[in-house]
């Protein structure tokens, strides 16, 4: 009995091992399954590649149709046209911006041309040579009202007194300062017919200077246009020149209107 039990225990692992190992038929089935899986993957890969190639061909045909729809132009041709349009906008915007700046400066200068009464703002437009450059008078001196007809200019540095005196005289304000100790007295002329006439002449001169600057802006714009005219037809260049001229004409007209309003203010107030 003991011997029988022992023999069963001894052969049990062998029986289990024999069950776990595939026989020849099982191996053949596994190999067949592997071959079918490989063939299926290869077929799917070929189908995917054909589909991809077909998709690429369709995209190329669509691109060709688009090119035909836009008259045979290439995409880089369209980009070139966009670049030229962008240059045109930039050039016109630059001219308009510079012209507007000149006009705004003229308005500011006119605002300091007060009639009859002393006001520190009258000297806001005065620029003084200083330290190898220049600076606004209001940054270099204290400007106060002494009385209704007189301004006092107290400079922070005595050595610039002469430069301040000269700057006020040349500022087109019809003012004649007088050096007084460490500062300047600036009498405001009484309002007379002659004074008004001189003020109008000064305003006219300032307007003419602004127009000259506007025309220089036009010249600069034309120079820039010549730099980018490669690839642009003669008709397109003429078109841009006309647009430049329209901007300049409008700016000059605006200056005339501003001068007209200022002259009326001077002669009637």
Automatic annotation (TrEMBL):
GO cellular component: a single term: mitochondrion
Keywords for the protein's UniProt record, in alphabetical order: Protein biosynthesis, Signal
Biased composition (Polar residues): 27-37
Ranges of compositional bias, category Acidic residues: 57-70
Disordered, as annotated region: 27-72
Signal peptide: 1-20
Pfam families to which the protein is assigned, alphabetical: RRF
The keyword Secreted belongs to this UniProt entry's keyword annotation: no
Residue ranges occupied by any Ribosome recycling factor domain in the UniProt entry: 106-266
Ranges of Basic residues composition bias in the record: 39-53
Job of this protein: Necessary for protein synthesis in mitochondria. Functions as a ribosome recycling factor in mitochondria.
Identification of the protein by name: Ribosome recycling factor domain-containing protein
């Amino acid at each position: 009995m003991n011997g029988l039990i022992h023999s069963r225990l001894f052969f049990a692992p062998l029986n289990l091992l024999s069950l776990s190992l595939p026989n020849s038929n099982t191996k053949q089935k596994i190999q067949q399954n592997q071959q079918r899986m490989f063939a299926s993957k290869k077929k799917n890969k070929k189908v995917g590649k054909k589909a991809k190639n077909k998709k690429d061909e369709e995209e190329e045909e669509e691109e060709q149709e688009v090119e035909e729809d836009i008259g045979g132009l290439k995409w880089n041709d369209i980009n070139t046209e966009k670049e030229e349009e962008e240059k045109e906008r930039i050039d016109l915007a630059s001219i308009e911006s510079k012209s507007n700046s000149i006009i705004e400066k003229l308005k500011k200068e006119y605002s300091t041309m007060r009639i009859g009464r002393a006001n520190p703002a009258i000297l806001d437009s005065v620029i003084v040579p200083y330290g190898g450059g220049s600076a606004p008078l209001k940054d270099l001196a204290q400007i106060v009202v002494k009385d209704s007809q007189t301004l006092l200019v107290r400079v922070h540095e005595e050595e610039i007194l002469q430069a301040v005196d000269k700057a006020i005289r040349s500022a087109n304000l019809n003012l004649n300062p007088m050096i007084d100790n460490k500062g300047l007295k600036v009498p405001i002329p009484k309002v007379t017919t002659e004074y008004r006439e001189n003020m109008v002449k000064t305003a006219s001169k300032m307007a003419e200077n602004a127009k000259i600057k506007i025309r220089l802006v036009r010249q600069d714009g034309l120079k820039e246009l010549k730099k980018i005219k490669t690839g642009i037809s003669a008709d397109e260049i003429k078109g841009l020149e006309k647009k430049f001229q329209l901007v300049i004409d409008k700016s000059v007209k605006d200056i005339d209107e501003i001068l007209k309003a200022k002259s009326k203010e001077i002669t009637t107030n």
